[in-house]
């Protein structure tokens, strides 16, 4: 963090390509912060040519070489262990409920944990939701999981969840799922609809269950060093602009998901949903998973376990 007289320069790190929407939104964020602070706060974005991976970006942030960072949840949880709670499947009944929690008072548990370490969680971003897709038949009830072999990413929380739903799992690197679906090694998998289309899993798996069981989240975080040098007014400005940009990004992601769904439907993908009754069964079956969580008290507040 550089400061000359009253001017503040904040370095911001994220992983993005030049045509990436997240990069464009970050540039708009930087521009609006500069305008609203009348040029006093400038945000310098890490060059997208930098090919750091998430963990390298995290280490640069930890070492004090970045003032702000946008990290995916798996990396961000290394800064706050409480974030692992957000990797549990089916903890929210809808996207609306998720935002009511994360943007509201109940979500303060995460902000408070960052603040206890001197950092600030400025805003949450959602890049989509993970869903299930299958080759032979659609998933329309919890009973359809029984005996089904699903490919899941290594070290995924879905393994334990699918055991409780009576399914079977095979841990595979993401780049091996395509061939596993083709060869019948697995009968289905789970990912976002964007990755489902990008990796052409729809060529083998024509049945797509839109259950939105796990959100794919990014977090925008301010370092402790930067926080120490900002006034409350400066912090409020960063929060307000961050939230404004996040709302725009959320709307964009939702719009793109609808458009992609329509394209996939025209290509023969059949979509299904769980009824409220089936969702209630899932909640009951996954209760042991939630009770095992270090943050089970928080899940009780959400009404996920008794």
From TrEMBL:
Instruction: Kindly list the organism's lineage.
Output: Bacteria, Bacillati, Bacillota, Clostridia, Lachnospirales
Question: Do you know which Gene3D superfamilies this protein is assigned to?
Answer: Bacterial extracellular solute-binding protein, family 7
For this protein, the record's Pfam families field holds: DctP
Q: Which UniProt keywords are listed? A: Signal, Transport
Q: Which organism is it from?
A: Oribacterium sinus F0268
Protein name according to UniProt = Bacterial extracellular solute-binding protein, family 7
What the record says about family reads: Belongs to the bacterial solute-binding protein 7 family.
- Give one GO biological process term: transmembrane transport
């Amino acid at each position: 963090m550089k400061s000359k007289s009253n001017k503040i320069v904040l370095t911001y790190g994220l992983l993005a390509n030049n045509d990436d929407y997240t990069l464009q939104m970050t540039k708009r964020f930087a521009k609006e912060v500069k305008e609203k602070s009348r040029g006093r706060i400038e945000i310098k974005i890490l060059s997208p040519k930098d090919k750091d991976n998430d963990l390298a970006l995290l280490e640069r942030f930890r070492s004090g070489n970045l003032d702000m960072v946008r990290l995916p949840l798996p990396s961000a949880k290394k800064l706050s262990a409480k974030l692992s709670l957000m990797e549990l499947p089916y903890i929210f009944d809808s996207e609306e409920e998720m935002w009511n929690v994360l943007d509201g008072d109940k979500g303060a548990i995460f902000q408070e944990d960052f603040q206890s370490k001197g950092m600030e969680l400025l805003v949450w971003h959602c890049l989509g939701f993970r869903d299930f897709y299958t080759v032979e038949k659609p998933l329309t009830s919890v009973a359809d999981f029984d005996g089904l072999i699903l490919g899941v990413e290594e070290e995924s929380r879905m393994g334990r969840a699918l055991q409780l739903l009576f399914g079977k799992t095979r841990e595979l690197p993401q780049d091996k799922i395509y061939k596993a679906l083709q060869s019948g090694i697995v009968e289905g998998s789970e990912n976002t609809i964007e990755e489902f289309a990008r990796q052409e899993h729809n060529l083998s798996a024509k049945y797509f269950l839109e259950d939105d069981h796990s959100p794919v989240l990014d977090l925008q975080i301010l370092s402790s060093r930067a926080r120490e040098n900002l006034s409350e007014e400066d912090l409020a400005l960063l929060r307000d602009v961050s939230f404004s940009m996040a709302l725009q990004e959320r709307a964009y992601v939702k719009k793109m998901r609808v458009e992609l769904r329509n394209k996939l439907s025209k290509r023969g993908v059949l979509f299904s949903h769980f009824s409220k009754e089936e969702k209630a069964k899932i909640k009951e079956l996954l209760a042991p998973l939630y009770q095992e969580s270090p943050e089970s008290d928080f899940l009780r507040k959400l009404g996920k376990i008794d």
